[in-house]
Amino acid sequence: MPSTASSTSSVTQTNEKQDGHYHYSAASPEEDGHVTSAFPKDVEAAGGEQDLPGTGVDVEKGLSDGPPSAPPPAFNPADFPDGGAKAWSVVAGGWCCLFVSFGWINCIGVFQNYYQAHMLSSYAPSTVAWIPSLEAFMMFAGGPVIGKVYDNYGPFYLLCFGTFFHVFGLMMTSLATKYYQFILAQGICSALGASMIFYPAMTSLTSWFFKKRALAFGVVASGSSTGGVIFPIMVQHLIPQIGFPWTMRACAFMILGLCFIGILTVKSRIPPVKKPVSIMEFIVPLKEPPFVMLTLGSFLFFLGMFLPINFLILQAQTRGMSANLAGYLIPIFNAVSFFGRTIPGYVADKIGRFNVLSFMCGFSGVIILALWLPAAANAPIIVFAALYGFGSGAFVSLAPSAIAQISDVRKIGVRTGTLFAIISVAALVSSPIGGALVGDDHGNYQDLQIYAGVMCCAGATVLLMTRILLAGPKLAVKV
């Protein structure tokens, strides 16, 4: 794309709805080799990395909400390093942050099983399920506030406070004996800290990568897969040896060490700019049809995504799998999700992020209905754990890059937080809904499996509609 040292490359784009979807068009270059931006005033930055029809121009790299002089001094949003020691050190630190935040959330199925069998055995599965579901909710619900703090102050303070709350919450969980104590310590305090670690790590990455963005997100998100492998095995092997309290403390100390690496390495390339809080910052993205559709599709997918993670161990045991072997299902799921977070990210940079995102979410729903639902022996359940880890793992890495594709990179914190805060409601209610379905089905998991598969497929359908909204029904288009 043409550019100069003093201006941001941009394209003249119209965002008009024709024939049922949004068409993007570009004006001819000006005499000086530049084209000007003509975005609707109420939409700061729409579009994405897909080529504009007939131009071969990427629309994300040079988006601007005004004339070429709009970006702040000394900051050109087109100057993404896409590599180098600083950029990859952010990836390394982000990997550590995802290991301790989303990686911890990925192993909540282990605690659902353990609490039901031990400390909270007198409670119904739907009641116990509020602990992991609240943990997932708190992980994402603080997104708008955390995103605003990030935009104003950068990642450092968030990472420091997040480390404290996450570690302190797990230390208090080690002392818990009653239901409300697990809710407060693990469900709220620890998860809030994990949220303050997760968002800065993912958001900072956006300012360092453009062409390799989905791949970079995939590498960082693979940290959650690694954490999801290590934490369940660690918990299950340490509890019989040193007991539940010291097992939680050992996990907390490991989290503390990895968070220290994240604090030192995760930085934003964009200088933070303090701005007053305005509720409209959170509302404006919801006026953009692509953002609304992406949010709706993610919400529906989240309603089903966590159910296999939380209930797979319990369901496998009802099918005759030994408790020892069932305990390895979550590590198998997370081990394969490592490749589900990285390989689709690499492919998405080549053929389009929305293309890959909608396909992988649809794949996840299909294998729930076609493989998990009829599975009645150990082998198909293990195969399902692996395939579902690959399919659902792509969402964590591709969703943030999809948000960035239709957003102004300078407001990525608020916009990412807004989407994840909305879908956190789905994470909150999904496990209790699943537990209630199991209870109503007299301990059988068929209704839960059907519900999870249908929700994932519904989310994939809406994400596909988002892709069509952006670029039309043609398949051979990078979106």
Describe the SSE topology.
Elements: E1 14-18, E2 21-25, H1 85-100, H2 102-105, H3 108-117, H4 125-128, H5 130-141, H6 143-153, H7 156-173, H8 179-206, H9 213-265, H10 280-283, H11 289-318, H12 323-326, H13 329-351, H14 353-372, H15 378-405, H16 412-440, H17 446-471
Antiparallel strand pairs: 1-2
Helix pairs in contact: 1-8, 1-9, 3-11, 5-8, 5-16, 6-8, 6-16, 7-8, 7-9, 8-9, 8-16, 9-13, 9-15, 11-14, 11-15, 11-16, 11-17, 13-14, 13-15, 14-15, 14-17, 16-17
Strand content: under 5%
In the sheet with the most strands, the strands line up as 1-2
Count helical runs. Answer: 17
Q: Report how far apart the termini are.
A: 18 Å
**Residue-averaged pLDDT:** 81
Order of helices and strands: EEHHHHHHHHHHHHHHHHH
Proportion of helical residues: 55-70%
Helix/strand class: mainly alpha
Spans where pLDDT lies below 50 across 5 or more residues: 1-75
Number of strands: 2
Indicate the overall shape.
globular
Rg, Å, rounded: 22 Å
| Largest β sheet strand count, sense and barrel closure | 2 strands, antiparallel
